[in-house]
Design brief:
The chain is mainly alpha-helical. Helix content is 58%, strand content 10%. It has 9 helices and 3 strands, in the order H-H-H-H-H-H-H-H-E-E-E-H. Helix 5 packs across helix 7. It is globular, with a radius of gyration of 18 Å. The model has no long low-confidence stretch (mean pLDDT 89).
């Protein structure tokens, strides 16, 4: 197995069971090539980490901003946990260097893929929670997300990716975008959604996520990029 000591140093955390961290770094594309080492991907840990992340963020915002209403807290949370922000954090921690990817996925830039990076960070959060409990995961989330909370909370207006895409679509096309779920696969505890963003009947972009909301958010991010080209 890969030596993860440099990554542990960057994460500023220790594991009682380091196998959990190894598991968190297994992208599903690599299973055939690492079948003698891993039999399952990091998707179950990602599912858990997503829930831990949302619970922690909601609680922090509730206590830190007593004057914020529900809408303000919801929008601020969406900025903090959105795919791009998690991917930026993963990049700063050099997590991409340690992900187990198939050769094909790596060739196509998988180590810099924002969806893979964000999902892997969530899997690491899940692994930390399983290994050390809520205290360990709270400590880790505090150290990686505090600056995001501080920076985003200074905004006078909070806009999530769907709101941004809607503004651009209305400005450029004069209409409000809509979203459709193209497919959903996997068992109930580990769903994968693919959603598409449309302007009228025209497909602008698609996005993937482990919830309908995340898939739509990613579709909005990709669609915004398309409209701004």
């Amino acid at each position: 197995m890969t030596d993860l000591k440099p990554l542990l140093k960057l994460l500023n955390i220790s594991f009682n069971d380091e196998k959990l961290l190894h598991q968190a770094l297994v992208h599903r594309s690599s299973l055939n090539e690492f079948k003698n080492t891993f039999t399952t991907s990091n998707e179950r840990l990602e599912f858990l980490g997503d829930a831990v992340l949302e619970q922690w963020t909601s609680q922090i915002l509730y206590h830190k901003f007593p004057n914020f209403n529900e809408g303000q807290m919801t929008n601020l949370r969406s900025l903090i946990v959105r795919t791009q922000n998690l991917a930026d954090i993963a990049l700063s921690l050099k997590i991409g260097n340690y992900i187990n990817l198939s050769k094909g996925e790596e060739t196509h830039g998988g180590r810099l893929n924002i969806s893979i990076l964000a999902d892997t960070l969530e899997a690491i959060i899940g692994a930390i929670y399983l290994d050390g409990g809520q205290v360990a995961s709270d400590t880790f989330l505090s150290q990686i997300l505090q600056s995001s909370i501080d920076n985003f909370s200074l905004k006078t207006e909070y806009k999530d990716p769907k709101s941004i895409f809607q503004e651009i679509a209305q400005s450029k096309q004069g209409t409000t975008p809509n979203y459709q779920v193209i497919s959903q696969t996997g068992p109930d505890h580990n769903k994968k959604f693919i959603s598409a963003a449309y302007i009228g009947d025209k497909l602008i972009a698609q996005g993937e996520g482990n919830s309908k909301q995340k898939a739509e958010e990613q579709a909005a991010i990709n669609a915004t990029t398309e409209l701004l080209k």
